[in-house]
Amino acid sequence: AVALGFNFVESGLAWGVSAVLMVVAVIAYASAAGALASRLVLAFVQSAFVALHIQLAQGQTELHFGVFVTLALLLVYLDWKLIIFGAAAFAVHHIAFDRLQAAGLGFFCLTEANFGLIVVHAVYVVVQSAVEVVLAINMNRAARQGDELGVLVSSVNRADGISLDVRGVVTETEGANALKATLS
């Protein structure tokens, strides 16, 4: 953002908004690391940085790639809610900034206001978000199953030998339930 600010003679805006967003991110992370609220705030901050980049570049199309990169990065949380939240944040930004740009108020979404093109952008975001929601759900399920299988294996493999009694191990996923039934 700062580099873009210097390039487009908006360094004050770049420094100011970047500082605010970084403070918000640090507070969110430090106060509730891992909690859904913290992850939502961090997703918002990342989305806001992309919006800032687009503003600083006066709507250049290339800076819109940040939208798709951000949505892809949100997969790291394995939570479909964050992907939908990010997509919604970008939708609100694009519509609001396009209309503010059309009104001549110094905001930029594209190089010139064009609501039809905003709709085209939205279609791409919806398609990517839909695919990522499916990926996040399936990846989350696989990760949970892997964790449960790991707990089951650790329960069986003890320092003094092997114990097939896994009644006390709580499982919810299909694979872990199958292994637990087999061991029982």
Brief overview:
The protein is about 70% helix and about 0% strand. It is an all-alpha fold. Strands 1-2 form a two-stranded antiparallel sheet.
Structure notes:
By secondary structure, the chain is mainly alpha-helical. Helices cover 72% and strands 2% of the residues. The chain is built from 7 helices and 2 strands; from the N terminus they run ααααααββα. It has a two-stranded antiparallel sheet with strand order 1-2. A hairpin with a 2-residue loop joins β1 and β2. α5 runs antiparallel to α6. The longest helix is centred in the last third of the chain and has 42 residues.
**Residues in β-strands, percent:** under 5%
What class, by secondary structure content?
mainly alpha
Question: How many β strands by DSSP?
Answer: 2
Mean pLDDT: 94
Main beta sheet? 2 strands, antiparallel
What is the helical fraction, as a range of percent?
over 70%
- Distance between the first and last residues' Cα: 58 Å
Q: Count of helical segments?
A: 7
Map the helices and strands.
Layout (H helix, E strand, L loop, with lengths): L1 H6 L3 H22 L3 H21 L8 H9 L6 H23 L12 H42 E2 L2 E2 L11 H10 L1
Antiparallel strand pairs: 1-2
